[in-house]
Task: inverse folding
């Protein structure tokens, strides 16, 4: 049995990226049950992000639903779910439901003229990203050069491909794309 | 060492001025129209006075510089793209006659690196070019000390003019044109700042870094280059709301060279302010190293030239 990491600062060993997953469990309302449920996660290369313990929401069978957010290398996720089931934990739902990484980019140009909402949906489609928020600055009015900062949620380890896609959209629409510098100790 | 200095601009003049302090002797200095040449050492003060008075550094033909007895040619003529002339021919001439060469001129090292190395291989002399990257900051000698194989990439800010403009735009909420004019008044930007703001100057330096890391293979046309001319004040404001700022960042690795405006943490190491430069070396076994300091200026660049002169092996006569 591998050691259970004492803190979530311990990084799982990965050679590629890690991805975020949400697992919904139903736990028997007994002391120590939650700890028992979390053990197979860290023991199998998962990194706990958060736990929502819905005590007020007891299921008809008297179980407590618990939502666990975790990160793991994609190739290890199935192993985590199997280990949970092997430990007798009732896994209701498991899957990648949200994104593991956030990054910001700034776009500069005739944003309104070039149809900002279409730009955003192209970025979401082509870069496979979710635009979490948008700040727009158009000091000279919307018919002139404006800047927009986008906060994007992406899958961990995919930043390079996301940037490539955003650059392509930028080239098409003659927008300047200011990318963040990723990697290294900037 | 006996120095022959070709080019009497800010850099060439400062090298002449400081050479004595570093224990070297100036036997020739040339500009585009004349030269002062004396095998026993020229009167540096007099040559610099002439230049300051609007004359050439001396009355001799510039070509006579190559005919005198010298150990090291200091190449400090203007950086040019493509064929990198007249610098390349000057270097060629010195190496073919078994002299050392120290360059401040980026052109030959960025555009014709393999040819330079081939000339060096056939010569008793060697070439060094610390001054071409980051002025006073010891970048190439740091890579040399780490051994180039142990350095995986170099990134950072290597153009003080562009950095000054972005810093002022962010601090004062001013637009590009306004700050550029101010920089020109202060003498930080040249009358024609094109190569500084369009990324070319920084790209040449990162091309040189890529050549050092990969032992050649790169020239300016291999670099992906974007400038800062299209960055409005509003982009810097949005970046600041998020704890970031925008800098003209270059990246060099064995895979390629890229220069462009990038978002960096406002309080991060790479967000140097004003005309300061910084280079971050990514190493295989020791994380990253940062060297920062003055990336340009006559005396600053001359110190890099003279450190190189000090690292040259002595020539067997
Ligand atoms: N300044 C810096 O901070 C800095 C930093 C790093 C590297 N560098 C590089 O160092 C080099 C010199 O810079 P700088 O600022 O001193 O340049 P500069 O002020 O433009 O001076 C260039 C000098 O080269 C002379 N020259 C031009 N063609 C010549 C020829 N065919 N034969 C002999 N001399 C010739 C010019 O002569 P005239 O005086 O007759 O015009 C002038 O004296 C450039 O390549 C630059 O990119 C400069």
Result:
């Amino acid at each position: 049995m591998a050691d259970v990491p004492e803190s979530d600062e311990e990084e799982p060993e990965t050679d590629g990226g890690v991805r975020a997953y949400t697992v919904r469990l139903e736990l028997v309302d007994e002391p120590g049950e939650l700890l028992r449920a979390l053990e197979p996660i860290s023991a199998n290369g998962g990194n706990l992000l958060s736990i929502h313990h819905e005590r007020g929401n007891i299921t008809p069978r008297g179980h407590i639903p618990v939502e666990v957010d975790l990160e793991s290398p994609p190739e290890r996720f199935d192993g985590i779910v199997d280990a949970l089931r092997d430990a007798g934990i009732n896994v209701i739902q498991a899957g990648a439901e949200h994104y593991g990484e956030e990054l910001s980019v700034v776009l500069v140009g005739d944003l309104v003229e070039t149809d900002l909402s279409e730009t955003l949906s192209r970025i979401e489609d082509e870069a496979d990203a979710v635009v979490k928020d948008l700040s727009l600055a158009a000091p000279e009015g919307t018919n002139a050069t404006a800047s927009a900062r986008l906060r994007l949620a992406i899958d961990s380890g995919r930043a390079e491909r996301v940037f490539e896609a955003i650059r392509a959209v930028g080239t098409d629409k003659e927008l300047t794309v200011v990318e963040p510098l990723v990697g290294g100790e900037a | 060492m006996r120095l022959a200095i070709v080019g009497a601009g800010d850099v060439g003049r400062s090298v002449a001025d400081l050479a004595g302090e570093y224990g070297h002797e100036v036997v020739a200095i040339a500009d585009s129209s004349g030269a002062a040449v004396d095998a026993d050492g020229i009167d540096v003060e007099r040559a610099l006075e002439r230049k300051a008075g609007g004359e050439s550094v001396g009355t001799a033909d510039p070509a006579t510089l190559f005919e005198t007895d010298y150990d090291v040619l200091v190449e400090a003529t203007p950086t040019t793209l493509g064929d990198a002339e007249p610098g390349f021919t000057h270097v060629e001439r010195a190496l073919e006659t078994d002299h050392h060469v120290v360059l401040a001129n980026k052109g030959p090292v960025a555009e014709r690196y393999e040819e330079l190395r081939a000339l060096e291989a056939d010569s008793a002399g060697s070439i060094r070019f610390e001054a071409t990257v980051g002025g006073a900051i010891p970048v190439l000698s740091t890579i040399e000390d780490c051994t180039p194989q142990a350095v995986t990439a170099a990134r950072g800010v290597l153009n003080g003019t562009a950095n000054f403009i972005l810093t002022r735009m962010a601090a004062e909420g001013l637009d590009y044109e306004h700050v550029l004019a101010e920089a020109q008044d202060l003498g930080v930007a040249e009358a024609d700042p094109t190569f500084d703001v369009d990324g070319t100057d920084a790209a040449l330096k990162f091309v040189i870094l890529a050549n050092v890391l990969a032992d050649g293979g790169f020239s300016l046309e291999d670099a992906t280059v974007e400038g800062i001319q299209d960055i409005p004040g509003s982009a810097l404001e949005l970046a600041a709301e998020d704890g970031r700022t925008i800098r003209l960042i270059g990246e060099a690795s064995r895979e390629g060279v890229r220069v462009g405006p990038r978002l960096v943490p406002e309080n991060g190491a790479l967000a140097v302010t004003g005309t300061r430069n910084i280079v971050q070396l990514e190493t295989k076994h020791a994380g990253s190293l940062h060297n920062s300091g003055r990336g340009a200026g006559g005396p600053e660049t001359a110190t890099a030239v003279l450190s190189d002169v000090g690292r040259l092996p002595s020539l067997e006569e």
